[in-house]
Amino acid sequence: MEDPAVSVLKRAVELDLASRFQESLVCYQEGIDLLLRVLKATNDEKKKAHYRDKITDYMNRAEAIKKCLEKEKEEGKYHKEIKIEENMKGFSYEKLFQEYLNETVTEVWVEDPYVRHVHQLYNFLRFCEMLVKGPCKVKTIHLLTSHDEGNGKGQQMSILEEIQQSLRDFSVTLDVSYSSSIHDREIRFNNGWIFKIGRGLDYFKKPQGRFCLGYCDFDLRPCHETTVDIFHVKHTKKT
Predict the structure, then answer these.
(1) 3-state DSSP assignment of residue 162
(2) In whole angstroms, what is the distance from residue 188 CA to residue 164 CA?
(3) Is residue 3 over pLDDT 70?
């Protein structure tokens, strides 16, 4: 019964020692929860005392990491790297961005050369829906992308115009620009947060069918392998 807790907490310590504090905090919290369950199920008083001591130690360390991360966030030194592995689930746009979307966000910039094909345009639409739902007060979204090659160019422009019109109904302006030389993928909020996603917004795998779980809810959709880097503009200005 103790094994899962030991395994998770061992991983927490390894990540902690490797200075991967954000990930270690998640493991500490999960491990503490598992250890609390073990404590509740234990009748041996000696073992109970041992578990309580361990839980206190891990809680103190988790709290120290939490304070350190909050301080780095305030100072603009915060950098978080999320490695999304092949076929992982639970990485909808809400999960990635919601933490950084407060009421100060009124303007968003999306640079992504691959908002071209229908599924990529749907991804962008899903991203826009998240912004409109709040809690941020987005008024302007800037999209810099590249033209679809060949016959898809007209369809791409038509769909983006439709999204533009739909956003207008929510008092949001969509500003679309095209560049043939754009390669980098970056998303910026005017509160200073910057997101670099290896695959841009297009990191979800194609659903197995139109009536399969994950077709509507992106948290249930398997992902392609990619890396997400999140940092603050203050951090980029420091040498």
Answers:
(1) helix
(2) 19
(3) yes
